[in-house]
Specification:
The structure is a single chain. Helix content is about 75%, strand content about 0%. It is mostly helical. It has a single domain, classed as Up-down Bundle (Growth Hormone, Chain: A). α7 runs antiparallel to α19, α8 packs antiparallel against α16 and α13 packs antiparallel against α20. It is a multi-pass membrane protein.
Length: about 450
C-alpha cells in the first residue's frame, strides 16, 4: 500500500473520531435492547411469566422473524432516503417498542413484543455497515469497522453489570427485570432524535471536513466504485441472486448462530452453576461473570483487525477464528468447574468477534450503491435467521437432553461450517485479500 498523504490521514482520523463513536453508541444501545431478554430471563422474567427453556428460546428468537421480513426493504429505503433520516427513524421506533416490555403480562405478550422489536430494528445493523462504508475507502474499512464492532462485546462488558444493578431493586412498584427494560429502552429514543441532527449522509455534506478532505474522500470512493469489476453494473436485484452473496450469507449464519446462542444463554448457563457446582452468586455477581468473556474479546477484536488492516484482509483472518470458535464452544460445557467453563467460553467469544469486522469488509469490495444496500441486507437477513434458530433450537435441545452440551455442539458445527465455506469461497476466487486503493486487481472478491 502507498504511504498515506496528510489529507488522507486527517480525513480518516476525523471520520474515526466523529462518526464511529456515535454510530458505535447506537449499536451499543441496539444490542443491549435486543439482548435485554437474556438478563431478564433467569432473573425473574422466566418465573413471573412461567416460561420453559423452549419458550424462552422462542421469545429470544422470534425477534428475528420480524427483523428478517423487513431487512432488505429497510436497507433499500436507507439508500433512498439517507442514513441520517432512516437510522433516526429506526432508533426512535425500537425505543418505543422496547419500553413496552416494562408492562408485558404473559408469554404471548412477550412473543408479540419481541416480534415487533424485530420489525422496528430491521435495517439498523446493515444500514450502519453501509453508512460507514460510504465514508472510508476499502483499505481503511477493516479498522473503521473494528472500532464500530467494539460496541458489541463492550455492550456485555458494561451492560451485564448495569442490567444486574438495575434488576437488584424494583422502582416505581416494578419488578427489577421490568425496571431494567424501561431503563435500557429510553436512550434509544434520545439518541435517535440526536441522530437526525448529528449525522451527515456523505462526505460532501460534512461541515466538519475541510474542502481538501471532502475532495479526497469523494474522489477516492468514486474511483473505487468505478473500478470494482464485479460491482460496476450490478443492480440490487442481481445482487440478491449473486452466488457469492449467498455463500457469504451462509458463512455469516454460522457466526450469528454462535454469537446469539452464547449471548442469549450465557447468563442462564452461569445461573445454572448454582445447581451444577453448588456456587452462589447474586444478580450483580452474575452480571459481572457474564462480562468475563467479552472484555478479552474486545481486545482480540481490535488486535486481529489491526493485523488485517496492515496485511490486507486475508481468508485466514476470517476462517481461523471461525474454526477455533467452533471447536471451543462445545468443549466449554465438558469442563468440570465454573472457572474452566468461563475460560473456554472466553476463547469462543474472542474467536467470533475477531472474525466479524473482517468479514464485513468482503461484500463492500464487490458491491456498490443499491447493490451494496441489497447485498449487505441479504447477508444480514440470512445470517439473522440464525438468531431465531439459535434461541429456539438451543432451548428445545436443552429441554430434550437436560443440558447444554448437545445444543452447544450444534453451535460449534455451524461455526466450523462457516470456516470451511470461507476457504471454499477463496479457492474459487471469491475471497482473498482486501484491495488497496491502487490495486483493484487484488480485491477480495473481484474475480
Amino acid at each position: 500500500m502507498d504511504t498515506p498523504t496528510s489529507v488522507e490521514r486527517s480525513a480518516v482520523k476525523k471520520v474515526a473520531l466523529r462518526l464511529v463513536p456515535f454510530v458505535a453508541l447506537m449499536f451499543f444501545i441496539n444490542y443491549l435492547d435486543r439482548t435485554a431478554i437474556s438478563f431478564a430471563g433467569p432473573n425473574g422474567m422466566n418465573h413471573d411469566l412461567a416460561l420453559s427453556a423452549a419458550q424462552f428460546g422462542f421469545a429470544s428468537g422470534v425477534f428475528f422473524i420480524g427483523y428478517i421480513l423487513l431487512e432488505v426493504p429497510s436497507n433499500l429505503a436507507l439508500h433512498r432516503f439517507g442514513a441520517r433520516r432512516w437510522l433516526a427513524r429506526i432508533m426512535v421506533s425500537w425505543g418505543i417498542v422496547a419500553a413496552l416490555f416494562t408492562w408485558v403480562p404473559n408469554s404471548e405478550g412477550l412473543y408479540l413484543l419481541r416480534f415487533a422489536l424485530g420489525v422496528a430494528e430491521a435495517g439498523f445493523f446493515p444500514g450502519a455497515i453501509l453508512f460507514l462504508s460510504l465514508w472510508v475507502p476499502a483499505k481503511h474499512r477493516s479498522r473503521i469497522l473494528a472500532l464500530f464492532y467494539l460496541a458489541q462485546p463492550l455492550t456485555t462488558v458494561i451492560g451485564a453489570p448495569l442490567a444486574g444493578a438495575l434488576m437488584q431493586h424494583g422502582v416505581f412498584g416494578l419488578e427489577g427485570w421490568r425496571f431494567m427494560y424501561l431503563a435500557v429502552s429510553l436512550p434509544a429514543i434520545a439518541i435517535g432524535v440526536l441522530c437526525w441532527f448529528f449525522l451527515s449522509d456523505r462526505p460532501g455534506q460534512a461541515k466538519w471536513l475541510t474542502p481538501a478532505e471532502k475532495e479526497w474522500l469523494t474522489a477516492t470512493l468514486a474511483k473505487e466504485a468505478k473500478t470494482s469489476t464485479a460491482g460496476q453494473h450490478v443492480s440490487a436485484w442481481k445482487a440478491l441472486g449473486n452466488g457469492r452473496v449467498w455463500t457469504l450469507s451462509l458463512i455469516y449464519f454460522g457466526f450469528i448462530y454462535g454469537l446469539y446462542a452464547l449471548g442469549f444463554f450465557l447468563p442462564t448457563i452461569i445461573k445454572g452453576f448454582e445447581a451444577q457446582f453448588g456456587t452462589r452468586f447474586d444478580v450483580f455477581q452474575q452480571g459481572l461473570i457474564t462480562t468475563i468473556p467479552y472484555l478479552p474479546a474486545a481486545v482480540v477484536l481490535w488486535l486481529w483487525s489491526r493485523d488485517a488492516t496492515r496485511r490486507g484482509v486475508r481468508t485466514w483472518h476470517i476462517a481461523v477464528p471461525a474454526a477455533v470458535g467452533g471447536v471451543s464452544i462445545p468443549l466449554a460445557l465438558a469442563t468440570n468447574n465454573p472457572a474452566a467453563t468461563v475460560a473456554v467460553i472466553t476463547v469462543t467469544a474472542c474467536a467470533i468477534f475477531a472474525a466479524l469486522p473482517n468479514f464485513w469488509t468482503v461484500p463492500t469490495q464487490f458491491l456498490t450503491g443499491a447493490a451494496a444496500a441489497a447485498g449487505i441486507a441479504l447477508i444480514n437477513t440470512v445470517g439473522n435467521i440464525a438468531g431465531f434458530a439459535a434461541g429456539y433450537v438451543t432451548g428445545a435441545l436443552k429441554d430434550w437432553t437436560g443440558g447444554y452440551l448437545v445444543p452447544m455442539s450444534v453451535v460449534g458445527g455451524f461455526m466450523v461450517l462457516s470456516a470451511v465455506l470461507m476457504v471454499v469461497l477463496a479457492r474459487r476466487g471469491g475471497a482473498g485479500r482486501a484491495a488497496s486503493e491502487d490495486d483493484a486487481s487484488a480485491t477480495a472478491v473481484a474475480h
